[in-house]
Structure formats: C-alpha cells, structure tokens
C-alpha cells in the first residue's frame, strides 16, 4: 500500500485555505480538499502490509517536542513560470522533526529525499497554465506570497495510507505518534 508520514492541518485553518483557493478560481487547477491537507514529512511509497507494524514501531522512537508553526505564504514548485505545485509555507521546527523521522526509519532503506526538506502543504496541482494567463498567475502569487493563514500546534505525526481515486486521494491514518 502507498504510505507516507504527515502532520495534518487543523480544521480551524480550512476556511482561510478555501478563501485562498477561491482566488485561483480563474485557473483550471486541481485543488486539494482543505479537510485532507497535510505537511508530508516523509513519503514512503509502496510498502508491503506486513511491514506496517515495524514502521509504526520505528516511528514511535521519533524524538521531538511539540511546537507551534505559522502557516504563511503561497509559493510554487519548481518555479513560478513553470509551476507544477502550488503550496502553503509552514514555519517552525520541521527540520528537526524531519531528521528524527529519517533517523527512525533509517534501517528500512527508504529512498532519502533528494531535495532539502521544505515544510509545505500542497494547495493545488497545475496540469496546464495557458500563456495568456501566466501574468495574472504571477501577479496573484506575488499578492499571496506573505499571506497569513494562521498558527497551529504540531502535536503528532501520522502514518497515513493513500488510496488514489478519480475524485482525488483518500487518506486513512494507520498510526499516530504523539510528540513531546
């Protein structure tokens, strides 16, 4: 099954996220439903079901205190003129949490992340951006680059299963590790 480790965004941020997504309504992007938005800490990929218990036990050794984060700013990967992913930035002690997760899973030989860790929550995926709309898109990104979405407490990480459907992904929490 397809699994990943994540920090879920709280329900109280959803109205603000919906408002930000509505600003992109002129574009035909594939939006992530606000109620399933999360910060992916580590994508594990396809994992045999019999490994899940060992992975869960390994994650129990993650060492991190709870911390506050500010969800702020809209950005893109890889770059504005060729955007593939639109994201919300997340500021906080995520690097330490990420390295503790990597350390706890080191014996499993999961692929190490190629890029430096960047805490973000995916807002939308860009399949196609017409040339005539690029300038409007760039201007909107500039307007939203520092938008404040809100604060949240990071109290746990969750091992989640992802099932891809035509209506979008369905996530199920398999294991939760409380921090602190």
CATH architecture: Alpha-Beta Complex
Largest sheet: 5 strands, antiparallel
Indicate the overall shape.
Answer: globular
Read across the widest sheet, the strand sequence of neighbours is: 2-6-5-4-7
- What is the CATH top level name? Alpha Beta
Query: Structural class per helix/strand content?
Result: alpha+beta
Report the average pLDDT across residues: 95
Kindly report the CATH topology: Cyclic Phosphodiesterase, Chain: A
The H-and-E topology, N to C, reads as: EHEEHEEHEHEEE
User: Mind telling me the C-alpha Rg?
Assistant: 17 Å
Q: Tell me the number of strands.
A: 9
Strand content is 35-45%
How far from one another are the termini?
Answer: 29 Å
Q: What's the number of structural domains?
A: 1
The percent range for helix content is 10-25%
Low-confidence stretches: none
CATH-level-4 superfamily name: Cyclic phosphodiesterase
How many separate helices?
4
Question: What keywords describe this structure?
Answer:
single chain, 180 residues, alpha+beta, five-stranded antiparallel sheet, globular
How would you characterize this protein structure?
The chain has 180 residues and is an alpha+beta fold. The protein has a single domain (2-178), classed as Cyclic phosphodiesterase (Cyclic Phosphodiesterase, Chain: A). 23% of the residues lie in helices and 39% in strands. The protein is built from four helices and nine strands. The chain has helices at 14-22, 52-59, 94-104, 131-144, and strands spanning 2-8, 30-31, 38-46, 67-77, 85-91, 120-125, 148-154, 156-165, 168-178. A five-stranded antiparallel β-sheet has the order 2-6-5-4-7, with helices on one face. It is globular. The model has no long low-confidence stretch (mean pLDDT 95).
């Amino acid at each position: 099954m397809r699994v990943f480790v994540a920090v879920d965004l709280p329900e109280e941020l959803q109205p603000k996220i919906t408002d930000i997504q509505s600003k992109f309504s002129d574009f035909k992007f594939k939006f992530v439903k606000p109620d399933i938005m999360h910060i992916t800490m580590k994508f594990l990929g396809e994992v045999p079901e019999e490994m899940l218990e060992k992975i869960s036990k390994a994650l129990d050794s993650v060492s991190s205190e709870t911390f506050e984060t500010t969800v702020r700013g809209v950005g893109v990967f890889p770059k504005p003129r060729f955007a593939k992913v639109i994201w919300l930035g997340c500021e906080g002690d995520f690097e330490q949490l990420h390295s503790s997760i990597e350390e706890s899973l080191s014996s499993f030989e999961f692929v190490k992340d190629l890029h430096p860790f960047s805490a973000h929550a995916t807002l939308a995926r860009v399949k196609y951006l017409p040339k005539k709309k690029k300038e409007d898109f760039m201007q909107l990104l500039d307007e939203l680059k520092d938008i404040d979405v809100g604060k949240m407490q990071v109290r746990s990480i969750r091992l989640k299963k992802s099932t891809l459907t035509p209506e979008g992904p369905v996530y199920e929490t398999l294991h939760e590790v409380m921090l602190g």
